[in-house]
Amino acid sequence: MTTTIPPQSAARAVTGRVDIRGVHKSYGEHEVLHDVSLTIEPGSVVALLGPSGSGKSTLLRAVNHLETIQRGEITIDGEFIGYEQRGDKLYELREKNVLERRTRVGMVFQNFNLFPHLTAIQNIMEAPVALRRGTKAQIRTRASELLARVGLADRANHYPRQLSGGQQQRVAIARALALDPDVLLFDEPTSALDPELVGEVLDVIRGLASGGTTLIIVTHEIGFAAEVADHVVFLDHGRIVEQGSPAQVLRSPEQARTQEFLDWVI
Fold it and tell me: Which residues in the chain land under pLDDT 50?
């Protein structure tokens, strides 16, 4: 069964619809995703919850073709990231073309993945400069605006080693925004942070949640999911066990497995 998730900001969000249809993913004989279907309308904020090994990060990475799938389809506004459809067949694109299409999807990883030899502002400028998204001066101005947006205007010339973990993750968020993606993916963005640094990153994501960009967030922060998401999806053993509004899934789950998970993490 496919569920369509309505947007929070339909008036502002035009692009960023994600269609996941009948997705299967295996590593050898180990099935990681089993018949996962989900439709996310532009501007929706979706939290993916589940225990380790449930398939949530694999599903997230499949959205931007960092993971391939054996069966099913994933499209963004009707377009495949890693494939081109000719007639009724799909053909895998060359890596250059995949990278071009992947610019529509920003991703924030657990471990920041900043270039250590580049300053904060240079990390943000790297992709737009490479893709010639404007003059260097224009791109620098935009990067400065993004640093200010994540509260790091005074850290533009600092290298990653000179920043705290929370600051590095905020630079990573600014970098993901630099190409103005239609969809923004977060893979447990606070899991590598010391507890006292988690709040500053969640505050930035809260701000993004009301901005009209489609957000898909893998997280163990149940309170944050309840506050920010308009739809929660609980996965276990590669299957969607339960989904719905935060109030329904997190406060009155219908499935015993969902309640068992919540009792363990809360």
Answer: 1-2, 6, 8-12
